[in-house]
Amino acid sequence: MVDILSQAGRLKRAQSYKKRLGAMLLFSFSISMFASVLLVGPFLFEYTKAKDAYEVEIVRIRGVLAETDFSEEEKLIRAQAVLLDGAQAVRATQPLSSVVEYITAAASGSVRILSMSLANEREIRVHGEAPNRQALVSFADALRATRAIAHVDVPIANFVAGVDAPFSISFVLKPYEK
Fold first, then answer.
1. Helical H segments across 68-132, by residue range
2. Fold for domain 92-178?
3. What's the CA gap between 51 and 89, in Å, rounded?
4. Has residue 2 got a pLDDT over 70?
5. 149-153 and 123-132 as β-strands: parallel, antiparallel, unpaired?
6. How far apart are CA 41 and CA 163, in angstroms?
7. Mean pLDDT, to the nearest integer, of 33-47?
8. Which range (71-80, 125-134, 160-169) has the least confidence?
9. Degrees (nearest 5) of the Cα angle 163, 154, 146?
10. Are 130 and 140 in contact (CB under 8 A)?
11. Long-range CB contacts for residues 48-51, cutoff 8 Å, separation at least 24
């Protein structure tokens, strides 16, 4: 085989190929970066917006907690609700801090709330003690009257004890309308 290119020609061709390969790699990298910005940008914007709303809500709740004289149990429940609100920022349910406010307002001092738990995304269970049956009925009626709650379930077993009755109530939240 006859080599028609000189050493300088082969070197020049190798440099040319290296430049082309470098340009193609740089172009591919820039196209992939542009595509990732187009794909991730909207999600990042929504995340930032939800995070800002979450931080504003935390500041608001801390102000309410600082101004109001709550029992230690209520403070713990309210603090947990604030933490869970961040997870719910992108969901279509009521903010838990608002729900906790509705529940404590409905309790109005006659019913003692001991614990709250999430059964699923829209169902909440409340456990506590009522001084009598009428206080429990008033609490359930007050929950039904709130705009955030769609359905309240009060099992008949809650009415067995006449005084200082432990109770368990579950309710379903209405879809959240911003």
1. 72-88, 96-107
2. Gyrase A; domain 2 (3.30.1360)
3. 8
4. no
5. unpaired
6. 58
7. 82
8. 71-80
9. 105
10. no
11. 50/89, 50/90, 51/89
Q: Which SS3 state, helix, strand or coil, does residue 59 take?
A: helix
- How far apart CA 86 and CA 53 sit, in angstroms, is 9
> Would the pLDDT of 134 be above 50?
yes
Q: Tokens 């929504």 correspond to what residue?
A: 46
Structure tokens at 21: 């390969």
Structural domain boundaries of the chain? 8-67, 92-178
Q: How many other CB atoms are there within 10 angstroms of residue 118's CB atom? A: 13
Q: Which of 142, 82, 145 is nearest to 111 (CA)?
A: 142
Q: Is the dihedral of CA 93, 98, 101, 105 positive or negative?
A: negative
Residue carrying structure tokens 């719910």: 88
At residue 136, does pLDDT exceed 80?
Answer: yes
